[in-house]
Predict the structure.
Amino acid sequence: MIEVRNLTKNFNGFRAVDHISFDVKRGEVFGLLGPNGAGKTTTIRMLATLTRPTEGTATVGNYDVVKDDDEVRKLIGLVSEKIIMYDRLTAKENLWFFGRLYGIPKEVLNERIDELLGLVQLGDWKGSQVGTFSSGMRQRMNVIRALLNMPKVLLLDEPTLGLDPQSSVEVREFVKKINREKKTTIILTTHMMVEADILCDRIGIMDHGKIAALDTSTNLKKLVSGDDTAILELEIANLTSNMIASIQSLKCVSSVSQDNSTHIKVHASGNGVFDTIIDAIRAEKGEINSVKNLEPTLEDVFLHITGHEVRDKADQKIPMRAHRRFMPRRRVR
Amino acid sequence: MNIKSVISNSLRIAWKDLIELFRNRMGLVMLVLMPIFMMSMVGFIYPSDTSMSNVSVALVNEDEGYGSYPSASATLIMALENISNSTGMMTITEASSLDEVREMIQKEEVEGGIVIARNFTVSLMTGNQGTITIVTDQSNPQMSTLLQIALKEVFEQMGTWLAQQNVQGLSPAVNASNSLAIVKPYSVQTEGAVPGHFSYFDFIAPGLMAMTVMMSVMTGLPAAISHEREVGTLDGMMVAPINRLAIIVGKTLAQTARGILQGIIILALAVALFGVTIHGNILLIFALLFLGVFSFVGLGVVVTSFAKDQETAMMVMMTLMFPMMFLSGVFFPIQQMPWYMQGISKFLPLTYVSTALRKVMVLGAGVSMITTELAVLIGFGIVMTAIAVPVFRRAMTR
């Protein structure tokens, strides 16, 4: 459905997107995961014909985004980071305006607006000005606006940015539903690991304008864990530094990190690691309250691949770890 | 992309913009207030006529008379008082000397003074010229010029009357009817191209209307487009399968409607409050305003394309608008400017709009009489639009 080849964009000498290539299959949910300034938005804007690529090509449904931009526009729906809604127009007027720009016949549009508003539980707000809506409601409006023309491809740029957890969940559910029911191909960008994990069939990890890794969530995680690697979270009531030292000295353990006064996280590989580690703690007379076998998260994947953490992760608690801090780069749009 | 869809989409965009405008109460109030302020400002501050009322003038009569003859100055003063009483033009205050008049002017007690010389009657009786000095307040050039003109006129008339008497006394062949012809062999009359009374306001109203409409479009268009770009809603239109021209045309239509609304307010105020009479065809006036907008709009679009945000766009527009306001002959006749400024004004579309509008409104000119202006405006419009559309298209997909 979408083919991207060596797509590059320079802004006044700054390379925002650097020769990226990927394909997205019909009906797939494809995620671009990365920190702010990684070039996700620029990539989406190039696919949406809003930004002209400096180099490389991209096609949507076999139409080139530069040469056949009008054909591309007919196929896509864009949910931009900014809300595309006029505050002084009512919900219905907004949808009507944009719907008519797509040349949707009046009767069809009327029905579709009601249907879409119902879908996001905003039917009762049809006649209210969008300026009076909460940000969750506005974002829902923003999403259904992009669905007016029943796009084959839906481009979502940070669809849950700035939303509370509950609204985020609603939006995610909605995106999933659209993909499932309408077989819409979806490309979304996000800096949230959880979101990418929940929604995407495949994930491209973007950093500094490049795609650092591209695979399914499960495969990406295998990059970190391998088949015999385990990550254990242990709660030890009387945790001491001696205990940590003795765990660390074990052959099968690759790293130990302390989360707080009672919790540690252990990366280990090999057979029988559970017994080995537990024996070591017992030897130090540790009282184990709980042991959890953790799945590696995309967080770990990102760290593993890029060598640094995702910035801007206010929505997530990450384990305290000595990590390299990068200077935040100026956001170039 | 056919013409029909461009038109219908631009109408949709214009409709949307106007709804937004009319729901913005504060903006709407300002929209109406702006032309009212502008009109009353210009209308009341600028002298609508060269008449004065209630100007206080100091009068010094130093005339000593000539023997037993009645002093000539007394007659003069009586006549002066009669005039000022009947027209309400001035109030006369007695003063003793030229120095006192100067002091009174400095204290701003009077706006000017009249000094009748010591030997006024003597001079007249001995066949010499009598002297009357008019003292003016240089700090107020406009007022002093007006006062000078008015008083000169008064004294001139009295002088003529006196001369008529003298000529009649000189020869019996001269009678009351032909004495004026001897003293003043010809009379000068002024007549306008169209009958009626005209004021400075008739001159300024057409230009002011043109300017308001232009300004409204020129500041409104970049502001509207860059605002939409900043809040992101422009992407919504850009990502729809519509011609970019429709976006420009739609935005322009909305701004034009806004400008014309202000123009109508100006016109209504000019007619209702300042007695401006419209001699030409109203439809032609609006057609001219539309054409004016068309000739300008390309420039606005180019500015929008280059300015990154609303603030910059506004600033660039204001910088361009300000000289245009003064150089295009809206307030001052172009003929009054030095040649190089006249040269610049030839490149401003506003010049042609206000000239054509003036011809139509004041002189009742028809289309055939403003063909040059129409041709220039259409030319401007086509060239600017031809530049603007590709520039806009490029800038929007940066």
